Amino acid sequence: MPFLPWLLLAVCMALASGCAVNPATGRDDFVLMDEASEQELGIRYNQDVQRRYPRYPDAQLQAYVQRVGERVARHSHRPDLTFIFTVIDSPDLNAFALPGGYIYVHRGLLAYLGSEAELAAVLAHEIGHVTARHGARQRSQSQAWDAIGQVAALGTGVGAVADATQLLGGALVRGYGREMELQADELGLQYLARSGYDPQAMARVVEVLQAQGAFLRSGRADPDRKDGGYHGLFDSHPAHEVRLRQLMGREAGSGVWNRDAYFQALDGLVVGESAAQGVLRGRRFYHRSLGVALDIPPGWRVVDESMAVTAYSADGAVFLVLRSEPLEPGLSPIALLGTRVGGRRLLEARALEEAALPGATAWLTGPPARRVAVAIGESYAYLFVAGAMKEEALRNADAQVLACIRSLRGMTKQDSSFAEPARIRTLRVGNGQHLTDFISAGTATVSTYEQENRIRLLNNLYPIGDVQPGDWLKVVR
Questions:
Q1: Pairing relation of β-strands 102-106 and 84-88?
Q2: pLDDT band at 419 (very low <50, low <70, confident <90, very high)
Q3: pLDDT tens column, 338-393
Q4: What is the model's pTM?
Q5: DSSP letters spanning 356-424
Q6: Most CB atoms closer than 10 Å: which of 200, 248, 312, 379?
Q7: Edge-to-edge strands of the sheet including 270-271?
């Protein structure tokens, strides 16, 4: 037999020995790591997540979510595993799990749930991913196809073989997505029922996510809205939903919803962007950490990252990055700009005209070309870089870019009130009250899109539902 088939056979036999019994299903799974290695992998991934996503600064809410998660995890197939549940400071409607028991839920998703049982349903689904070792399986499958691709490339001397094999392996791994999600649904339903929650809470979460999808498809959503969708819980594929509802039908009996506890824990939750991330009011962007405000061009969106704030044009073709650094005394704005461009030549360098703060701007030689600028505050220098894949797009947007740079100014005392993020307030509906009473009273003031749509979505009343006396209600203030 030629060398390459023998070598591939040896690799495949070695990989086949990596089967392990799945603790949740009892079946043999292809996993190339033991549980200790899985936990080490989770620790590394967890460190990456912590660098990318800040922890939501509410100790009471964090403790509440941890208690709910532990209640469910005790009834899972891996009750001895230490699960850590964390609320991250993100407006996205999402949650995810890492190998080893690290589970994250975005505060944006918490805002749209309506009971502790619904929170438990989300956490139970993520616990199902952990107990079934889905993360370890995906990692093992990726490693396996990488190994086979490298051997094939070694035996043939053609690097394209390795690339093609990696693509094939990636397609197979992605193909497990729906199977894994459905398995997590099934396991989550078991854990939810065993821990004393009503299994129908999963159906309620389905309704919440479907309402979000219907609203986004309606054309009435604000184009700047950044609430990302769930990674795969309750997959929207029709066959998946039918299967999920069949599984719910098998979990007979009823359980608790604990709406009172959930609404009390939710009171004061930030919705939309947080103060640390910057708050967009109309077109004015307030960033408390940087201590500045500036006007964002119409139609542009803002993303605040750990090291910088980035604005993107409506078509995504142009970006403008802002970051700050301590001010170096004795340097003029143009001189400071020259020290920050790595010796590259500045073209058309000039002082910023009609700007709120003194500064300078120039074109940076390409390719690709860049608009660069610096504005000088009391203690900090604010550095801008604008760019695009195509220089023509950047030139066309240059007037908007310069207007945004010129608008940068230090925050005033009045600005501080605008920089406060919107928060959920929870209340009980009184006799004779209707949803329109709370909207017209101004208790759901939101600048980004219609008050009525926001309050309906927050309370799972979209598109035409109404409240009843005694109901809990979320409003935004």
A1: parallel
A2: confident
A3: 898 877 889 999 999 899 999 999 998 777 889 999 999 988 999 999 999 899 99
A4: 0.72
A5: SS-EEEEEEPSSSPEEEEEEE-SSEEEEEEEEESSHHHHHHTHHHHHHHHHH-EE--HHHHHHTSPEEE
A6: 248
A7: 270-271, 422-428, 472-476
